[in-house]
Design goal:
This protein is mostly beta strands. It is built from 2 helices and 15 strands. It is 7% helix and 44% strand. The strands form 4 sheets. It has a 4-stranded antiparallel beta sheet with strand order 1-6-3-4, with no helix packed on it. Strand 3 and strand 4 form a beta hairpin. The radius of gyration is 26 Å and the shape is elongated. This is Transmembrane protein 8A.
Amino acid sequence: MFHFTVPKEVPRATWQFAAFMDDPTCHTRKVYMSTKYDYDIVVTTTTTYQPKNVTVVPVYEPQPGDWFVAAYMSYWDEKVQQQGLGHKCQYSIGAIALWSQIDNIVNVPVNYQTRLRTSATTTYYKIYVPSGLLSFRLSVWNCSFTLHNFRDINKPCIEAMYLKGRVLPTSSHFHSTESKTLTTNASYSFIEPSPYEDSYYYLSIVSSSIIEFDIKVDTTGNLTLIHFILSVCVRARVCTHIHTPA
């Protein structure tokens, strides 16, 4: 059993697996490795005397926290396979994980319009969603190029835009979330009707040029406050109509 701790704000993690035997005369065996964190990953490899076969498994948008990898070999009768041999074969399994963490992600204020500027081809922003919110809407509009040679009304100002809760969204060819494009005179709103509570949502903006855009996050309702008002009204038996907060 292997244990890895993936930090927050990692767009991609890569696992490498290898299986070895200590003598070239040993019987080759299949090795199975599996892990599960929202989805199954099953890897099959074969033991070798020298590290020739390394299985590489990329995982996009990995959930932060503990990851466990279970490794096992299929049953075989050691007495039958090694009868008459003086050497007892030893098998070993190795696993490593690699990832890069995105630093200094800009925090987007809630219920307040602001203007942001990208700093790379792919720029990430984060929005903190507290407990009790019924929903939120993230709106992006008024996108503009900062360089004059990119001022083309028909060219997408934002070439791809993604929003996802708890993990950094990716635009990988192998694991792609549905993206949105935006021209200079267009707008788009992401609506999350039942957001994760006490969590960060991450917005990814992809553009081949440095751009600026307006953004605002509007929240709706506060379940904690609504439940408190309802409980007071039920106990007092005086409420005839309740206005839920926006």
